[in-house]
Amino acid sequence: MKILAISGSMRSESTNTNLLTEISHLSSEYMKIDIFNSHDQIPIFSPDQEGENTPDSVLSLCEKVANSDGIIISSPEYIRSIPGGLKNTIDWLVSRDEVIKKPITLIHASHRGSDVLESLRRVLATISENFSKDIFLQIPLIGKSKDEIKEIVNSEKNKLAVNGFIFEFSNFIKSIKVINRE
Ligand SMILES: Cc1cc2nc3c(=O)[nH]c(=O)nc-3n(C[C@H](O)[C@H](O)[C@H](O)COP(=O)(O)O)c2cc1C
User: Fold this and answer.
1) Residue of the nearest CA to atom 31 in ligand 1?
2) In this structure, which topology does domain 2-180 adopt according to CATH?
3) pLDDT tens by residue, 94-115
4) Torsions phi, psi for 96 (to 5 deg)
């Protein structure tokens, strides 16, 4: 199963990206997780740039979306909302076909940030018929280093939580495939 994991943070020591990296290691037996956080490569969205004018970097992202069985998003909250880079990336996907039936779910790397979760849930339920708000993983990691994140995510309790999340998300993806007879 191929998963596209989108981090909302471009920070080199991002807790969201580091969490997704650890999850990709823990789930490698069941899923190949490809992480995307190059929001700076995606031009500011304009409907004038859609269709035959679509930039190559956007086409490349859309190909990743099309080739994935599902999408996981993990994002920080910026000013009680979705970081601009991530929102801009999502804006490009909305009028295209790739994302409409895609299973999508959220991971959260913070003990706070309920506003970004609420916004993302509303946005993702709008762009995909198969956004699951019930399949959700939260591991608070604000301020933690890469090494600390590795240790925290690999604790017995969190490994169980990650495995449960991966199990639920892969079953959800399989059930969607059956419905769509892929
Ligand atoms: C510009 C900016 C705005 C932020 N606004 C909020 C906020 O509204 N609520 C919040 O809980 N944290 C806020 N934070 C803190 C980040 O969400 C937090 O540091 C998070 O761990 C960053 O994610 P990262 O480690 O993946 O880069 C903000 C950080 C920045 C840089």
Assistant:
1) 78
2) Rossmann fold (3.40.50)
3) 999 999 999 999 999 999 999 9
4) -105, 175
